[in-house]
Design brief:
five-stranded antiparallel beta sheet; alpha+beta
Length: 122
C-alpha cells in the first residue's frame, strides 16, 4: 500500500494499457495532486481536467486504465527492474521445475531469502 499523497505534491504519471500501446511512447509526466479524499485522490497536468486515482493502488479510476502514478522517476525505474527480476526468477522455476538445475543448497538459500523478505513486511 502506498502512502497517502498530499495536496500540492508532485507525482509522475505513466501512460499504460491502450494509452501506451496506441498512443505515444511510454513516458512519465509530472502531475500535481489537487484533492485527497478517503478512497480517491485527484491529479492534474497544468490546466487540463483532473484525473481520479485510487488511494490504495495509485491507478486511474476508470474502466480503461490509461495511467498509473509513481512517486518519482526513480520509483518507476525500480518498478521496471523489479518486474525484470521477477520474470527471470519465474522462468528459473517454470512449471514448478528447477529449470536452471540449481543445487539443493542454493534452493534452500533462496527459500530463506524469500522467508526473510516476507517477514520484513511485518
Amino acid at each position: 500500500m502506498r502512502k497517502k499523497p498530499k495536496v500540492g505534491q508532485i507525482l509522475h504519471s505513466l501512460n499504460v494499457g491502450n494509452a501506451a500501446r496506441y498512443g505515444r511512447v511510454q513516458s512519465l509526466t509530472p502531475v500535481t495532486v489537487t484533492k485527497v479524499g478517503r478512497k480517491y485522490f485527484y491529479c492534474k497536468v497544468g490546466n487540463y481536467l483532473e484525473t481520479q486515482y485510487h488511494l490504495k493502488t495509485w491507478w486511474e479510476n476508470s474502466p480503461n486504465i490509461s495511467s498509473e502514478l509513481y512517486l518519482s522517476p526513480q520509483a518507476w525505474e525500480e518498478a521496471k527492474e523489479t518486474d525484470k527480476i521477477c520474470k527471470y526468477i519465474s522462468s528459473s522455476f517454470k512449471y514448478g521445475r528447477n529449470m536452471k538445475d540449481l543445487n539443493f543448497k542454493t534452493l534452500q538459500d533462496i527459500e530463506k531469502l524469500i522467508l526473510i523478505g516476507e517477514n520484513d513486511g511485518e
